Amino acid sequence: MTKxxxxxxxxxxxxxxxxxxxAASRPELDIRAINPVAGNVGYESTSQNALRLADLLxxxxxxxxxxxxxxxxxxxxxxxxxxxxxxxxxxLPEAHRDFDPxxxxxxxxxxxxxxxxxxxxVALGPMTNLAIALTRYPELKKLIRKITVMxxxxxxxxxxxxxxxxxxxxxxxxxxxxQSGIPIAMCGLDGNDTCCMNGxxxxxxxxxxxxxxxxxxxxAHFIHDRNTIQWHMTGxxxxxxxxxxxxxxxxxxxxxxxxxxxxxxxxxxxxxTVVDLYHVSGKKPNxxxxxxxxxxxxxxxxxxxxxxxTEH
Length: 312
Ligand code: RIB
Ligand code: CA
Prior knowledge:
Layout: E1 4-10, H1 14-24, E2 29-36, H2 43-57, H3 79-82, H4 104-114, E3 119-123, H5 128-136, H6 140-143, E4 144-150, H7 165-169, H8 171-178, E5 184-187, H9 189-192, H10 199-206, H11 213-230, H12 239-248, E6 253-262, E7 273-276, E8 287-293, H13 295-311
Parallel strand pairs: 1-2, 1-3, 3-4, 4-5, 5-8
Antiparallel strand pairs: 6-7, 6-8
The protein binds alpha-D-ribofuranose (RIB) and calcium ion (CA).
């Protein structure tokens, strides 16, 4: 089987955790590195969570040393949303491995060169690491095959009225990535919401006994309880998980190529991904924007993930 080389950039984070579990269950993926970045919680926690998760899941990959703060914007996190330590209070076992000696952006560049133009990236947090890599190594624009990002929205934001968290934390980095010329698949809040899960689906899938039941059940119910009890929502869109599913099987996703830019100045819409959905700007589309994903097939991918962990 020809494997798909991939680097996962993330800020674990409860939904990042489930996304990485999905990736690790896919034998067709060659996870070269998991690169942490500050985001949901501070770098100390996101990096430890990434290291420990790689250990728990037995992923033979590098864990680079990522950015501890955004390029220009102040460092802002979402600890209230991801709970103590970033995993809803769950404590992963200590890692037996250490971080890679190299920075995340150097790891990304090395793996891109090693993959000879086949490397893909899945970005599940603020895109600071990617932006640094693209700035230091412009040749990566020809060496990275595609970047699938959980970022932005063509609709309402979740951080201010217009902005999604990952883009809002580091809009300068988001803009560097979006204008890089690399093929981008943007799985934003609105497109991901077509895979919103209800309580029965959350329990049917994540309560299945397997070797990672503890952490999966904990974070899935942490997300759902927060959404339904605390925020009175009717269901849960596990954004990084939907994004990873669209990366694993792009055929479940419907994208619209749009010119998209990220707002880095406005006091009202700072961090907004401004999506030219109706092509009125006259500018060439630079981002494939997720409009919907097939929820039935998304749920089947999750069932396959849980089955894999009952057998491996
Ligand atoms: O807005 C949702 C995104 O921000 C997800 O990636 C979540 O993990 C947080 O990073
Ligand atoms: Ca994330």
